[in-house]
Specification:
Blueprint (H helix, E strand, L loop, with lengths): L13 H7 L17 E4 L2 E4 L5 E2 L2 E2 L11 H23 L5 E12 L7 H16 L6 E7 L8 E9 L10
Length: about 170
Protein backbone atom coordinates (compact mmCIF):
# COMPACT_ATOMS: atom_id res chain seq x y z
CA UNK A 1 0.00 0.00 0.00
CA UNK A 2 1.30 3.42 -0.93
CA UNK A 3 2.14 5.92 1.77
CA UNK A 4 -0.19 8.89 1.58
CA UNK A 5 1.01 11.94 3.52
CA UNK A 6 -1.77 13.88 5.24
CA UNK A 7 -3.24 16.84 3.39
CA UNK A 8 -1.09 19.93 3.72
CA UNK A 9 2.08 18.03 4.56
CA UNK A 10 5.35 18.77 2.85
CA UNK A 11 8.56 16.80 2.74
CA UNK A 12 11.64 18.58 4.12
CA UNK A 13 13.98 16.91 1.62
CA UNK A 14 12.87 14.74 -1.26
CA UNK A 15 16.38 13.32 -1.60
CA UNK A 16 16.31 12.25 2.06
CA UNK A 17 12.77 10.91 1.71
CA UNK A 18 13.81 8.78 -1.26
CA UNK A 19 16.55 7.20 0.88
CA UNK A 20 14.11 6.70 3.79
CA UNK A 21 11.86 4.77 1.40
CA UNK A 22 14.84 2.56 0.51
CA UNK A 23 14.70 3.61 -3.13
CA UNK A 24 17.62 4.14 -5.48
CA UNK A 25 17.27 5.91 -8.77
CA UNK A 26 18.37 4.16 -11.95
CA UNK A 27 20.65 5.87 -14.46
CA UNK A 28 18.61 8.53 -16.29
CA UNK A 29 17.18 6.99 -19.46
CA UNK A 30 18.71 8.07 -22.75
CA UNK A 31 16.68 9.26 -25.70
CA UNK A 32 15.63 6.51 -28.10
CA UNK A 33 15.46 8.90 -31.05
CA UNK A 34 15.92 12.46 -32.23
CA UNK A 35 14.68 14.28 -29.14
CA UNK A 36 15.92 15.39 -25.75
CA UNK A 37 14.80 13.54 -22.60
CA UNK A 38 14.39 16.83 -20.67
CA UNK A 39 13.76 20.44 -21.55
CA UNK A 40 13.67 23.26 -18.98
CA UNK A 41 11.70 26.42 -19.78
CA UNK A 42 11.73 28.96 -16.97
CA UNK A 43 10.53 27.18 -13.86
CA UNK A 44 9.05 24.20 -15.73
CA UNK A 45 10.90 20.96 -16.47
CA UNK A 46 9.36 18.77 -19.16
CA UNK A 47 10.31 15.13 -19.61
CA UNK A 48 9.86 13.11 -22.74
CA UNK A 49 8.07 9.81 -22.34
CA UNK A 50 10.06 7.26 -20.33
CA UNK A 51 9.71 3.49 -20.34
CA UNK A 52 10.16 0.97 -17.49
CA UNK A 53 13.88 0.54 -18.19
CA UNK A 54 16.96 0.14 -16.02
CA UNK A 55 20.32 0.95 -17.60
CA UNK A 56 18.79 0.74 -21.06
CA UNK A 57 17.19 -2.67 -20.44
CA UNK A 58 13.41 -2.88 -20.71
CA UNK A 59 12.13 -4.47 -17.50
CA UNK A 60 8.39 -4.73 -18.14
CA UNK A 61 7.06 -5.56 -21.60
CA UNK A 62 3.65 -6.88 -22.53
CA UNK A 63 -0.02 -6.06 -22.52
CA UNK A 64 -1.75 -5.10 -19.27
CA UNK A 65 -4.99 -7.00 -18.90
CA UNK A 66 -3.58 -9.61 -21.29
CA UNK A 67 -0.26 -11.26 -20.47
CA UNK A 68 0.43 -8.79 -17.62
CA UNK A 69 -1.59 -8.24 -14.44
CA UNK A 70 -2.66 -4.85 -13.13
CA UNK A 71 -0.01 -5.26 -10.43
CA UNK A 72 2.72 -5.81 -13.02
CA UNK A 73 1.50 -2.73 -14.90
CA UNK A 74 1.53 -0.73 -11.67
CA UNK A 75 5.14 -1.78 -11.04
CA UNK A 76 6.02 -0.71 -14.60
CA UNK A 77 4.46 2.71 -13.89
CA UNK A 78 6.44 2.96 -10.65
CA UNK A 79 9.66 2.21 -12.52
CA UNK A 80 8.77 4.90 -15.06
CA UNK A 81 8.32 7.34 -12.16
CA UNK A 82 11.76 6.43 -10.80
CA UNK A 83 13.18 7.15 -14.26
CA UNK A 84 11.45 10.53 -14.29
CA UNK A 85 12.98 11.30 -10.89
CA UNK A 86 16.39 10.22 -12.24
CA UNK A 87 15.99 12.67 -15.14
CA UNK A 88 14.92 15.45 -12.76
CA UNK A 89 17.88 14.87 -10.44
CA UNK A 90 20.37 14.66 -13.35
CA UNK A 91 19.10 17.93 -14.80
CA UNK A 92 18.68 19.92 -11.58
CA UNK A 93 21.27 18.36 -9.26
CA UNK A 94 18.74 17.46 -6.56
CA UNK A 95 15.14 16.38 -6.12
CA UNK A 96 14.95 19.24 -3.63
CA UNK A 97 14.81 21.57 -6.66
CA UNK A 98 11.25 20.28 -7.28
CA UNK A 99 8.63 22.80 -6.28
CA UNK A 100 5.63 20.76 -7.46
CA UNK A 101 4.77 17.85 -9.74
CA UNK A 102 2.40 19.56 -12.17
CA UNK A 103 1.22 16.96 -14.65
CA UNK A 104 1.72 13.31 -15.55
CA UNK A 105 0.66 11.79 -18.87
CA UNK A 106 0.74 8.03 -19.12
CA UNK A 107 0.06 5.40 -21.74
CA UNK A 108 -0.72 1.82 -20.80
CA UNK A 109 -0.35 -0.89 -23.43
CA UNK A 110 -3.77 -2.44 -22.92
CA UNK A 111 -5.71 -5.53 -23.89
CA UNK A 112 -9.01 -4.95 -25.73
CA UNK A 113 -11.74 -3.79 -23.32
CA UNK A 114 -9.19 -3.11 -20.52
CA UNK A 115 -10.27 0.14 -18.87
CA UNK A 116 -8.22 0.35 -15.66
CA UNK A 117 -5.41 2.56 -16.96
CA UNK A 118 -5.86 5.04 -14.07
CA UNK A 119 -5.30 2.22 -11.57
CA UNK A 120 -2.10 1.19 -13.36
CA UNK A 121 -0.78 4.76 -13.37
CA UNK A 122 -1.37 5.04 -9.64
CA UNK A 123 1.99 3.26 -9.40
CA UNK A 124 3.66 6.46 -10.60
CA UNK A 125 1.31 8.93 -8.90
CA UNK A 126 1.60 7.25 -5.51
CA UNK A 127 5.40 7.27 -5.73
CA UNK A 128 5.48 11.01 -6.44
CA UNK A 129 3.33 11.65 -3.35
CA UNK A 130 5.48 9.29 -1.25
CA UNK A 131 8.61 11.22 -2.23
CA UNK A 132 7.32 14.83 -2.33
CA UNK A 133 4.28 14.84 -0.03
CA UNK A 134 1.59 17.30 -1.15
CA UNK A 135 3.99 18.77 -3.71
CA UNK A 136 3.84 15.41 -5.47
CA UNK A 137 0.11 15.66 -6.25
CA UNK A 138 -0.50 16.42 -9.91
CA UNK A 139 -3.02 16.41 -12.72
CA UNK A 140 -2.95 13.27 -14.82
CA UNK A 141 -4.03 11.78 -18.10
CA UNK A 142 -4.24 7.97 -18.34
CA UNK A 143 -4.62 6.52 -21.82
CA UNK A 144 -4.77 3.02 -23.23
CA UNK A 145 -2.91 2.10 -26.40
CA UNK A 146 -2.27 -1.01 -28.46
CA UNK A 147 1.50 -0.53 -28.83
CA UNK A 148 4.41 1.27 -27.16
CA UNK A 149 8.10 1.54 -28.07
CA UNK A 150 10.08 -1.68 -27.51
CA UNK A 151 6.84 -3.44 -26.52
CA UNK A 152 6.86 -1.64 -23.14
CA UNK A 153 3.83 -1.99 -20.89
CA UNK A 154 3.79 1.69 -19.83
CA UNK A 155 5.18 5.04 -20.98
CA UNK A 156 4.98 8.18 -18.83
CA UNK A 157 5.99 11.83 -19.19
CA UNK A 158 5.81 14.65 -16.66
CA UNK A 159 5.80 18.40 -16.22
CA UNK A 160 7.55 19.51 -13.04
CA UNK A 161 7.69 22.99 -11.53
CA UNK A 162 11.17 23.64 -10.16
CA UNK A 163 13.06 26.27 -8.18
CA UNK A 164 15.33 27.60 -10.99
CA UNK A 165 17.78 29.15 -8.53
CA UNK A 166 18.44 25.68 -7.05
CA UNK A 167 19.27 24.05 -10.39
CA UNK A 168 22.80 22.61 -10.46
CA UNK A 169 22.79 19.95 -13.22
CA UNK A 170 24.82 16.84 -12.47
CA UNK A 171 28.09 16.72 -14.33
CA UNK A 172 28.27 13.79 -16.72
Amino acid sequence: MAIQPKAGTAVASADVRLAELGLELPQPPAALGSYTPVHIVGDLLYTSGVLPVVNGELRVAGVVGGDLSIGEGTEAARLCALNILALVRANTGSLDAVRHMVQVVGFVRSAPAFALQPRVLNGASDLFVEVFGEQGRHTRTALGTSELPMGAAVEISAVVRIFPDMVRPAKG
